[in-house]
Design goal:
2 copies of one chain form a homodimer. Chain A has a single domain (3-126), classed as Phosphoribosyl-AMP cyclohydrolase (Ubiquitin-like (UB roll)). In chain A, 16% of the residues lie in helices and 36% in strands. Chain A is built from 3 helices and 8 strands. In chain A, a hairpin with a 2-residue loop joins strand 7 and strand 8. The interface between A and B is large, with 39 and 39 residues. Strand 7 (105-108) of chain A pairs antiparallel with strand 5 of chain B, so a sheet runs across the interface.
Amino acid sequence: MNEALFKAIKFGPDGLVAAIAQAHDTGEVLMAAFMNREAIEKTLATGEVHYFSRSRHALWRKGESSGQTQRLIELRLDCDGDALLLLVDQTGVACHTGRRSCFFRALKDGELKTITNVLVDPERLYGER
Amino acid sequence: MNEALFKAIKFGPDGLVAAIAQAHDTGEVLMAAFMNREAIEKTLATGEVHYFSRSRHALWRKGESSGQTQRLIELRLDCDGDALLLLVDQTGVACHTGRRSCFFRALKDGELKTITNVLVDPERLYGER
């Protein structure tokens, strides 16, 4: 299935390709993560975005513990095939800190500042840990 | 300079961090590339985005041969510090194919389709090669 796609993707030596999730409606860049072939296949088969966690070395469905899922609207590939852009319909917040986007720190006058607010208490997303 | 920033960035074992360039005005995701510490320092010092080319193993200033430069508007960092989001003012086109964004292929009904047009002839950007 989708052999042309998998030929066009240049997976790294670890079998992973970078994936950027962008909100299909607002254009916000929500997060950057990695996918392996299986994550892409499950994403396309279910319409729910799956990634591969390098730290846990495991496939995960975005939102499987937090409920903050991503529905795939469109999958795009860049010119050299080593990055995916996922246009998604984000339920709630993408970041585990409870912020809409993981890119919530910006360099301002030489200092890293937090530029967006927590929208959902992480304890509500993940329970007490 | 910016020691707090460089402490917060988690460079990979190759000394690189993923960087996503997004048009500051339209929100288009233009490209994904890599930066090393020197690329970030030069970007902050000059306001012109520099990357590190993995294939050429060299620092490059975006647009140095094509003229399609990127002026940095804001640098953002994600929650786990392993990806940068660069809000940029893109001169002309970001892709070496002459398209605005490198993400010009999308999966449609199981097939990769080209979804955007060439705006500038690559020969005009790079001369005859």
